[in-house]
Design a protein that fits this description.
Layout lengths: L1 H15 L8 H17 L2 H11 L9 H16 L3 E23 L3 E2 L11 H4 L9 E2 L4 E9 L5 H9 L8 E5 L7 H8 L4 E5 L2 H4 L21 E2 L37 E4 L1 H10 L20 E27 L4 E11 L7 H19 L6 E8 L2 H4 L1 H9 L1 H7 E6 L6 E7 L4 H8 L11 H12 L2 H9 L12 H8 L3 E8 L13 H8 L4 H19 L8 H33 L28 H15 L12 H9 L22 E3 L7 E3 L1 H8 L6 H27 L1
Parallel strand pairs: 3-7, 4-5, 5-6, 6-8, 10-11, 10-12, 12-14
Antiparallel strand pairs: 1-2, 1-9, 4-9, 9-11, 13-14, 15-16
Helix pairs in contact: 2-19, 3-10, 10-19, 12-17, 15-16, 20-21, 20-23, 21-24, 22-24, 23-24
Length: about 725
């Protein structure tokens, strides 16, 4: 009863606010009726049924249960009335044939490299086609060396080691999971001369320090190991042998030794149970306080006493990745596509990652199939081989890139789900539309909208300016990489959104054998309440984009966010200039006191080139022109636009104007000039990446060109806005 009342209140609030963005009064009424039907149709029992079938066994790419899931998904979509196809790509995926890690001195210890099945969890007892713990796209290797502890293995961690006089050249590093994408840990280690890499989950981050461990609680136990790909995702997504091209017959392929995205040094993930004897055997300086975990050992940097032997070999297989693509053709604009996706492959059972997001997608698709035809075509996609490097989605995008540039209105992604608070990232031009949809979905715990609950969470935990900004309207976080939106958003320029609920469903099961149905339904989202909410949220925004008279893109939001990012990079340059000047003055005076750089890291005691003054005027002027154009643009759904189809096409393809056809410096696959994964961060986003990273990494000669490129892109967008305004005024 409370939920029905809350839904009614939300519907009345939408009507009182002037309707849904992109709809006139009559359209708003029809759309609200569809959304009420959506809410009533999404059934938690369906979600539970689908999860228990899809996650019953391991279903990684090429597995028996994975093949069964592809057939089940295709059959479900077809039975609901979708035109369904299975698309296939031949991709390179390594499978381990040997994994060995031995502490040889000062004592001997052989790592088990296995996870313990739980007798209380049927899924873990009957594992079937289980993948052992390994890091996909580690090279083969057989190395022996002293061990150095490198904390999270970030660039700043190696600067700390240097100040302590610890060199990793010719050594094997041990890093803990967290703080950065796992693939960056061997990449950065190799740049510093390391010959091997071990990655473990410390219980201070992911284990008993956080609470009871599985099966007594949700957190990682002493045998749990996080698997995962370590391909160089910030270089490109997709098959490592066909970057920028689809992995289909007739396309040229690189030799494996020429595939730059394969990690540079042999790498192996282990449990904290296996890590403890290695860390306990290490000597050398005591690690800084912030580097210390929760194991009962003295954390030391090592470097000269403990020696390990690390060996990994792989069967480098060509496997078939299979996507399930389901279409419902639009009644008025069949060549305008709203695409909704989630991957179906998992490291093993994958109840949370990815099935909790996939079952929400299925619930949306089933409900929408029973409704009248949408104005625009809706495409549902279940991607394969995401876990190895976003491969199924990337290959599909690369195969259909020209059609997508013309037809794709937006891409909406989920990649698993939890419970608690709404998390959202994406194209800022879709901020307002998504926020309005989120304000129409009822939070299952509180009865307020999921938007209001997220705003309250920010106000309680951050307060001040953050609270004020949240109340005035939540903004998307910038998207880096790590899920299937990357090829759509950062390679092609298709407006994209990534969303989930998180913050309360704690779990140490990520990429372990314990990511099972029992774990999910007991510890993460009992009753699938937030799976229902995720389906209602993404189903809403899918329907609104599919049915809007005027697509609800706010191009003025791009101006706002670019101004914010531009102020940040200007400050970065000014701060770096000042700290470099102070550092050089200290050194000239014979004072070797260390100076903090703008990121808070200590600068090494060496003279640096002066930071030039960059000419941001072209970018300032381009932002001003864009702001003037967007301020003059008013589009209302109740206007009779003669050129509505053309206006909508100009709106949804506007994001593509922000792409640089040359790509970003040293990684041309990534083309978006506002957002990209950090070169040495991986998942985390770098905004205005070509400018920001050129300053951060002191490649100052690249900055003027990056400024000019972005200014030209903003001017193209301004011309687009002016064309829309002329059409709207006719």
């Amino acid at each position: 009863m409370r939920l029905l009342f809350a839904t009614l209140v939300v519907a009345l609030a939408v009507q009182a606010s002037g309707g849904i963005l992109g709809f006139d009064a009559a359209g708003t009424e029809r759309q609200l009726a569809l959304e009420a039907e959506l809410d009533a149709s999404v059934d938690a029992a369906d979600l539970a049924f689908w999860m228990r079938g899809l996650a019953a066994r391991p279903h990684h790419t090429g597995s028996e249960h994975g093949e069964m899931n592809v057939e089940s998904l295709a059959n479900w979509f077809t039975s609901w009335g979708y035109d369904t196809e299975i698309t296939s790509y031949e991709i390179l995926i390594p499978r381990p044939t040997e994994r060995r890690l031995v502490l040889e001195s000062p004592t001997r210890f052989v790592a088990s490299l296995t996870e313990r099945p739980m007798m209380s969890d049927p899924s873990s007892r009957f594992a079937g086609d289980m993948l052992p713990p390994y890091n996909s796209f580690s090279p083969d290797g057989d190395v022996r060396g002293n061990v150095v502890y490198v904390n999270y293995g970030r660039i700043e961690d190696y600067e700390t080691l240097e100040r302590h006089g610890v060199d990793v050249s010719g050594k094997i590093v041990i890093a803990r999971y967290g703080a950065t994408f796992r693939g960056m840990k061997p990449k950065i280690a190799a740049l510093h001369g390391a010959i091997g890499c071990i990655i473990y989950s410390d219980p201070v981050d992911d284990g008993y320090y956080q609470g009871p461990v599985y099966p007594d609680g949700p957190h990682k136990n002493a045998t749990g190991v996080q698997r995962g790909s370590i391909m160089d995702l910030p270089l490109h997504a997709g098959d490592v042998l066909t970057p920028g091209r689809p992995a289909i017959a007739g396309e040229p392929r690189l030799a494996r030794e020429d595939a730059a995205a394969i990690a540079p040094i042999p790498t192996l993930p282990i449990s904290y149970g296996d890590a403890e004897p290695i860390l306990a055997a290490m000597k050398g300086p005591v690690a800084p306080r912030e580097w210390r975990g929760a194991l009962p050992v003295t954390y030391r940097l090592g470097g000269g006493e403990a020696t390990v032997h690390l060996k990994v070999t792989f069967d480098w297989q060509m496997l078939t990745a299979k996507n399930v693509i389901a279409r419902r053709t639009g009644s008025q604009f069949p060549d305008q596509w709203v695409i909704r996706g989630n991957h179906h492959d998992a490291w093993n059972h994958g109840a949370r990652d990815p099935i909790s997001g996939l079952i929400a997608l299925l619930a949306e698709a089933k409900a929408i199939a029973a409704m009248p035809e949408p104005k625009r075509t809706i495409v549902y996609a279940a991607w394969d081989a995401e876990e190895h490097g976003l491969m199924g989605s990337t290959e599909w995008v690369e195969e259909h890139i020209e059609t997508l540039r013309t037809n794709a209105v937006a891409y909406l992604n989920t990649d698993g789900n939890g419970r608690g608070f709404l998390g959202m990232g994406g194209s800022h031009a879709l901020d307002k539309a998504f926020v309005q949809a989120a304000d129409a979905v009822v939070d299952p715990q509180t009865g307020v909208s999921v938007l209001r609950r997220r705003q309250a969470n920010i106000c309680v935990n951050q307060g001040g300016e953050a609270c004020g900004r949240a109340k005035s309207g939540l903004q998307f976080r910038a998207l880096g990489s790590g899920s299937d939106y990357s090829p759509f958003f950062q390679h092609v320029g298709i407006p994209s959104i990534n969303s989930s609920f998180r913050g309360e469903g704690h779990s140490g099961a990520y990429h372990t054998m314990h990511d099972t149905v029992m774990h999910f339904e007991r510890d993460i989202d009992p009753g699938h309440d937030y799976g229902v909410a995720l389906a209602q949220l993404n189903g809403r925004i899918t329907l609104r984009l599919a049915n809007a008279t005027v697509l609800p893109f706010d191009l003025g939001a791009i101006t706002t966010i670019v101004k914010k990012y531009l102020a940040e990079v200007k400050k970065l340059a000014d701060d770096q200039r000042e700290t470099t000047k102070r550092q050089n003055e200290h050194l000239a005076a014979g004072d070797f006191a260390l100076v903090l750089d703008p990121s808070g890291s200590l600068m090494p005691p060496e003279r640096r080139p002066a930071v030039p003054h960059f000419n941001f005027a072209p970018l300032d002027n381009a932002v001003m022109r864009l702001e003037q154009a967007t301020d003059a643009l008013e589009l209302e759904a109740n206007r009779d636009y003669a050129a509505i189809e053309r206006i909508n096409q100009l709106l949804y393809t506007a994001e593509a104007e922000l792409m640089n056809p040359k790509g970003l410096p040293d990684r041309p696959w990534y083309r978006h000039q506002l957002y990209a994964p950090g070169t040495f961060e991986g998942y985390g986003a770098k905004t205005l990446p070509a400018i920001r990273e050129s300053i951060e990494y002191r490649n100052y000669a690249q900055v003027p060109g990056a400024i000019e490129d972005l200014a030209a892109a903003l001017d193209r967008l301004t011309m687009r806005v002016e064309e829309i305004r002329v059409l709207a005024d006719d």
